[in-house]
Design a protein that fits this description.
The complex is a heterodimer of chains A (about 300) and B (about 425). With about 300 residues, chain A is an alpha+beta fold. Helices cover about 35% and strands about 15% of the residues of chain A. In chain A, strand 5 and strand 6 form a beta hairpin. In chain A, helix 1 packs across helix 2. Chain A is globular. Chain B has one domain: Formate dehydrogenase/DMSO reductase domain (Formate dehydrogenase/DMSO reductase fold, Up-down Bundle), CATH 1.20.1630.10. In chain B, about 70% of the residues lie in helices and about 0% in strands. Chain B is globular and about 80 Å long. Classes of the chains: A alpha+beta (about 300), B mainly alpha (about 425). At the A-B interface, helix 4, helix 5 and strand 7 of A face helix 6 of B.
Chain lengths: ~300, ~425
């Protein structure tokens, strides 16, 4: 079609005019692509990526290749939309690892370095002051955070007080998992309870089911300052959560599956936080469980948390 | 008034055409009423547009009070939907002729209530565009583990039963045929069990959460049924009163009397169970009574719900007592304000009075107050208007067809009578 049209033009205008017009057209099109059209093409790419993202499967049903593809799409989208180079991982759990956590009530002095580190590492929404970790200032005589003060703004430690950190306890028998109507939250083989942020519909039934206030909701689009975003991300971990989905502590899956400690453990200045592999008999967490008197919160609910408190 | 409404032909097309024409024609007051409902709905759509774009942060819900006004209304309306069974059961099982004449109105009210329930769930979702994740096949429905998946199944099933049975009957009557009992009576019996199921499952949604002591209460299911069987028939008698007063479709006062009995019995059982709950919470207040203390008396200076719940309980008791005294012995319409009182009382108690204290104090003992934002109120009013519109647009053609069918039957009976004599 195009060829015959060109030939027609050739006849009409003669060879010279044709060449001239051809050159003009070429110049025009390159100018167009240099300016507005690139935006259009990129916009088109963005739409395609978003389209594929919208119709993708639940993360647990994806093949390794599909996981790779969605991670690539999300990286590309971050590049197009936010001009940001992120590295997103879909690393699987390591065999023979079951994560557990212990909290030393004697050591914690309520500095909340863990909270700050967690907020930064996990790209938590700064606008609503989302915190995965809550620290309660407790008076002697009780062991339940309900009797403590979760909002203290003074110099710590306060005399005759102790401090109790609370976060998602990654229960073995987690009520939130049972509640979810779409199987958007589950327990990974390494014991971490995760949320597929892109599969969650935002009904918040898991939030009602959690007896530990371990879950948070994105009431609006999350806001993290551009240069404070942690760029090493995990699909199930600290990537920027979409509006209207649940999120929660993932034991810093992006760090712990790469052999590092969770941000809160690394940040704690007093060494009150202990994290490790429950299946490794030589791990610190196993030492604590064997040699300290430990307890867990609300054991009567049979949730079997993998988070223990102990007193030195 | 219904004389000008004529059946224009046969077949599904003229059926639909007639319904649309009947629905749209009517006096000035009727037209204004429809326009008013549409206006409120449009404002609700505008509010939802805001919520859709900005997120649920435009509501007053928070990580602590994570369910609010939407879920409160949802829970209450499931009860209203279930209450249709209080007409269906006597009409079909005990062959009560008076209630049989109005059973269609009960079914339509149930359909309206269910449509509202679904909308309340939809507007409560953080990610409504991903609601397809719930559809088995293309998504994943976590059945049987999640009670929410059960609720989705029973609500949709009940909606199907309560729209298809009346549709079949009305469609047959439209063609002056007597509907084949074999074709619909089995489904009527299924729908009776199903009505109990929708409300029990909705109660189990809350009852099944050990994390929330206020909800984790085995009386929840039975009490849901009792309050529903009081509030639902109360609403139905108000709807009947409106139809009786504004249309040519006259409701016999015996119908109001029977509904009154159903309401009284259910309301008394409901109050007994409420008393039992209050006794348990306050005779030996334990750690688990915090929510009840917050609800009835306030906790640590947070007492937004206190006037609300006492209003609800007072209206509940006053409504019940008036209905027992029965001042409308001669004119049952006089009892309707008491029905409205009871209805609102149960709405308060089973709506906000049930949902919010379940979440406050939080599992870590933190207390926040909650009152719906203007966006939540606007969306809720929009959904309620939509529900009322659905009921109106379904009840009107149904009653026209029923009236004409009855007339045909009477004429046929007369003919037979004349032939015989």
């Amino acid at each position: 079609m195009d060829d015959s049209k060109n030939r027609l033009n050739e006849k009409k205008f003669g060879r010279r005019t044709f060449l001239k017009r051809f050159a003009q057209a070429a110049a025009l099109s390159s100018a167009a692509s240099a300016t507005g059209c690139i935006g259009l093409i990129q916009n088109n790419e963005m739409l395609q990526l978003k389209w594929k993202e919208y119709f993708k499967k639940n993360y647990r049903l994806m093949t390794p290749q599909e996981k790779e593809e969605t991670v690539e799409r999300l990286e590309r989208l971050a590049k197009i939309e936010k001009h940001m180079d992120i590295q997103m991982s879909s690393q699987n759990p390591i065999n023979g690892v079951l994560f557990g956590y212990a909290f030393n009530l004697t050591r914690c002095e309520g500095f909340m370095e863990c909270v700050t580190a967690c907020v930064k590492e996990n790209n938590l929404d700064r606008q609503s002051h989302t915190q995965y970790i809550r620290i309660f200032e407790m008076e002697p005589g009780g062991m339940s955070p309900e009797t403590g003060n979760g909002k203290y703004f003074h110099e710590v430690p306060l005399d005759n007080h102790f401090y109790m950190g609370v976060q998602c306890f990654h229960c073995e028998n987690a009520p939130c998992i049972r509640a979810c109507p779409t199987k958007a939250t589950w327990k990974e083989p390494d014991g971490i309870v995760v949320v597929d942020y892109d599969w969650c519909i935002g009904c918040r039934y898991c939030m009602a089911a959690c007896p530990y206030y371990g879950r948070r909701f994105n009431w609006s689009a999350s806001q993290v300052p551009y240069n404070e975003i942690t760029k090493k991300q995990h699909y199930l971990g600290n990537r920027i959560r979409p509006k209207g989905t649940m999120e929660k502590c993932t034991f810093c899956v992006q760090r712990t599956r790469a052999g590092k400690l969770p941000a809160c453990v690394e940040a704690c200045p007093t060494g009150a936080r202990i994290f490790g592999n429950l299946l490794d008999p030589d791990s610190e967490i196993r030492f604590v469980l064997k040699h300290k008197k430990v307890f867990r919160l609300k054991e009567d609910l049979a949730t079997d948390p993998k988070f223990w408190y102990f007193i030195d | 008034m219904y004389k000008k409404y004529r059946i224009s032909g046969e077949g599904i097309l003229s059926f639909i055409k007639d319904i649309i024409v009947w629905d749209l024609s009517g006096g000035v007051i009727y037209q204004l009423y429809l326009c008013g409902l549409v206006l409120i709905m449009m404002f609700g759509v505008y509010a939802y547009f805001l919520q859709f774009n900005l997120g649920l942060s435009v509501t007053n819900m928070s990580d602590i009070v994570s369910w609010g006004f939407y879920i409160a209304n949802f829970t209450f309306l499931v009860g209203v939907a279930a209450a249709a069974v209080m007409l269906i059961l006597p009409a079909y099982v005990f062959k009560d002729k008076d209630l049989h004449k109005v059973v269609i109105i009960g079914e339509v009210v149930a359909v309206g209530a269910l449509v509202m329930c679904m909308l309340f769930i939809l507007v409560d979702l953080g990610n409504p565009l991903k609601a397809w994740h719930l559809i088995p096949g293309i998504g994943i429905l976590n059945w049987p583990s999640s009670l929410l998946s059960w609720d989705i199944i029973v609500l949709n099933g009940y909606l199907a039963l309560n729209s298809l049975i009346p549709l079949y009957i009305v469609y047959s009557h439209y063609h002056n045929r007597i509907p084949d009992k074999k074709k619909y009576v089995p489904f009527v019996f299924i729908s009776i069990f199903w009505a109990f199921a929708i409300h029990m499952v909705t109660a189990f949604l809350y009852e099944g959460l050990p994390a929330r002591a206020f909800w984790n209460n085995p009386l929840m299911g039975p009490r849901f049924l009792a309050s529903a069987f009081a509030a639902g028939p109360a609403l139905i008698s108000v709807v009947l009163g409106v139809i009786h007063s504004f249309t040519t479709f006259k409701i016999e006062s015996r119908v109001f009397g029977k509904l009154r009995l159903i309401i009284i019995i259910s309301a008394i059982i409901n109050l007994v169970m409420l008393f039992s709950e209050i006794f348990k919470e306050f005779y030996t207040p334990t750690h688990h009574s915090q929510s009840a203390i917050y609800l009835f008396f306030g906790l640590d200076g947070y007492d937004e719900l206190v006037p609300w719940i006492w209003t609800g309980i007072s209206m509940n008791i006053i409504g019940t007592v008036i209905l027992i005294l029965n001042p409308g012995r001669k004119n049952p319409l006089i009892n309707l304000p008491a029905s409205i009182f009871l209805f609102i009382g149960i709405w308060i108690e089973k709506g906000m009075g049930l949902i919010v204290p379940g979440l406050v104090p939080s599992p870590l003992g933190e207390i926040v107050d909650y009152a719906p934002s203007w966006v939540e109120i606007s969306i809720t009013l929009g959904i309620l208007s939509f529900g009322i519109l659905v009921v109106t647009l379904l009840v009107k053609p149904a009653l026209i067809i029923e009236q004409q069918f009855e007339k045909q039957m009477d004429m046929a009976a007369q003919l037979i009578h004349e032939n015989n004599s």
